[in-house]
Design a protein that fits this description.
Helix content is about 30%, strand content about 20%. The chain is α/β, with parallel strands linked by helices. Strands 1, 2, 3, 4, 5, 6, 9 and 10 form an eight-stranded mixed β-sheet that branches. Strands 7-8 form a two-stranded antiparallel sheet. The longest helix has 22 residues, at about 185-205.
């Protein structure tokens, strides 16, 4: 299946149906809640490229190794940025600013689908007009460079207790986000679509259900 076909499937389901489909296969945590966006309800979907952040250590900090721009280009170097989702771990400082309108303009210059983080971003008004989708823990106004620093690019990261490996698929909408292993993407999206169809059929049946029958026998499945 092509990337275009996979994307079309993803845009026809929801985070909830994907979470249910994934939970039928694996018991590990895969969904992330309490996210906000400068464009509420917008759908974010694509393969993950990652930057791992770490609490600042001035004795170790290097102007290149721990530079955001350098790590951003390292993250997209192998797979390219077109359609990718930049996943940034906060290093435990979920109230820290991970960036803002200036830094993140690189995402639109390189064709990324958007960005997901368990930290915060500045400049929501700017980000809302950039053409990519942003999900994070909220907006802030203070720079975070004295708290966290980029440490590594394209390594496994942890976002709100969920593991993200480069190449995983990220799906986020107004309800939350879910991380889907690349090897399962087609089956999970097909399962999610089937669940959505089953729910729609169930809602149609509710129009004509007999309350007395339901009270005696329960809901028809």
């Amino acid at each position: 299946m092509t990337d275009t076909e996979i994307r079309a499937m993803a845009l026809d389901v929801t985070c909830s149906s994907i979470v249910d489909a994934l939970a039928a296969r694996y018991s590990h945590p895969a969904h992330i809640l309490d996210l906000v966006s400068p464009t509420p309800g917008a759908v974010l979907f694509g393969r993950a490229v990652t930057i791992r952040y770490f609490p600042v250590r001035k004795d170790l900090q290097d102007p290149v190794d721990n530079d955001f721009a350098a790590n951003f280009y390292r993250a997209i170097d192998e797979a390219g940025g077109d359609g990718a989702v930049l996943v940034m771990s906060s290093g435990g400082h979920t109230d820290a600013a991970m960036g803002g309108g200036r830094k993140l303009t690189r995402l639109r210059h390189n064709g990324l689908a958007g960005v997901l983080t368990d930290g915060r971003f500045r400049d929501f008004d700017d980000l809302a007009g950039y053409g990519f989708v942003t999900y994070c823990k909220g907006e802030t106004v203070r720079q975070g460079g004295n708290l966290i620093m980029p440490l590594q690019a394209n390594v496994p990261v942890e976002i709100s207790g969920v593991g993200v490996v480069p190449g995983d698929y990220v799906y986020a909408d107004g309800a939350g986000a879910v991380i889907i292993p690349a090897g399962d993407i087609e089956e999970v999206l097909a399962d999610a679509a089937a669940r959505e169809a089953k729910d729609r059929a169930s809602m149609e049946r509710m129009r004509d259900e007999d309350p007395k029958h339901v009270m005696t026998h329960g809901e028809a499945r």
